[in-house]
Amino acid sequence: MQHPSHPARTRTAPGVPCTRGHAAAKHLAPGRAVTSYATSGDRVRVTVRGELDLVSGNRLRGPLGEALTASTTGLDLDLSELAFCDCAGLTVLMELRLRALSRGKTVVIRRSGAATDRLLRLLGAQDLFSPPGPHGPSPRPLTPATA
């Protein structure tokens, strides 16, 4: 059974929620995710731990949107401690990316684990979360990967 995500939040920077540390993420029930946030210059680094699926993704949309709003140029995602990510979880990331692009910002995956890498590779979406080129973000559409 899926359990909803309840990220513990404190404020470390104006408008940026933060978990209270790594201990909360070590023993997560299935279907839960926690996030932590840190401001670094004009970007906000977001670390997601646990499982990113329909239930946890719906609960993280608000906090991720707040982090995007608090950033000047966008978000840097660390998904290396994400144990599971399905298509519903990826949809949350894709929507976040589109929201960022509409504001002239980017969402970059700086670190990811095997589960997330595989999903992005299968869908041909890994380049959508790459750092922008010299001319800014490229709002390319999602295209299927070729076998």
TrEMBL record:
Pfam families: STAS_2 (PF13466). SUPFAM superfamilies: SpoIIaa-like (SSF52091). Residues 131-147 have a biased composition (Pro residues). Residues 46-124 form the STAS domain. InterPro entries: MlaB-like_STAS (IPR058548), STAS_dom (IPR002645), STAS_dom_sf (IPR036513). Residues 126-147 are annotated as: Disordered. GO terms for molecular function: anti-sigma factor antagonist activity. This is STAS domain-containing protein. The lineage of its organism: Bacteria, Bacillati, Actinomycetota, Actinomycetes, Kitasatosporales.
